[in-house]
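Notes on consecutive records. When two proteins share a document, each keeps its own sequence and its own token line. Never mix them. Below: protein one.
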Amino acid sequence: MDDLNALLSPGMLVMHPQHPEWGAGQVQSNIGGKVTVNFRDQGKMVIDSFRLELIPVFDEG
């Protein structure tokens, strides 16, 4: 199975496709198929890249 978030790097903003109410989160790390994202209201979450594809955010406005 492919790493769906392989191109994400620290500092990038992403949305969780199943929880849009969390808003944009900032990628903290992307190591070995585990992406740690800090969502402002939800806190830090570790996402399994082999199970879920995060949505990059290019414009918050």
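Protein two starts on the next line and is unrelated to protein one.
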Amino acid sequence: MELVTLKEILKDTRQKKYAVPNFNVFNIEMLQGVLNAAQDLHSPVIIAYGEGFKDVMQVEDFPGIVKTVGAKYTVPVCIHLDHAFTYELIERAVPCGFTSVMIDSSDKPFEENIRITQKVTDLCRPLGISVESELGHVSGLGDMVENDDHVYTDVDTADIFVEKTGIDALAVSIGTAHGVYREIPKLSVDRLKELAERLELPLVLHGGSGLTDEQFRECVREGISKVNIHTDLAMAAKKRIEADIAEKGYLDLCTVAQEGVYEEAVKKIKLFGSENKA
């Protein structure tokens, strides 16, 4: 495994018009399913931890597990902390081996978001750790969400934010939502185009699960460099388990869950164009 930062793994995505998948995983089955897919398709990959996983895995344990399991693989891997809502969580995470962190203060007033993000970049930059932040608001963070009046990322504000914080990647709000959609989301691709034209750094799409394949392709074409995926992986694993639960034991169910994650990861890697980019 070639361990790299977020800045390194995304460096040529805008030029070559592909996106690196960010897969949020919380157990060995999901981790191996994703790594197997990346290895088979020669794709760089971002393996991410979310704060919501703390009941099954602590943040301090995550990088070590990824490094141990990933030792036999040869593709570039970024170990990422996703959606850290507090500086304190990032302080706990950075000594443990993460190569990238995301601070999410997008629900705070603009100047407060800048202040917190600057504090994170001041902590991480001397350690060689990349920093992602979010501007605008990707709604949801629940199991079921509906399209609503999203707070889209403003182009002028984003320009100021990037300059003042020195971040390596920016998560933008263009109409997606976390969780499972009740209807196909209505994206503002025009806003994405405006952001991509103004900003040189990689742009990140959160709340991607549930988009159509063509929506994904369009977002990547127009400037998205990183796409976060969790719900689709979890649903793929759940579907495979449900199909076999009456006939298989727990060990075999773990195996079919891994297979489901692998198949979904392969689909996303091909869809985002990162195949053979390792």
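For the record: Residues 250-272 form the longest helix (23 residues).
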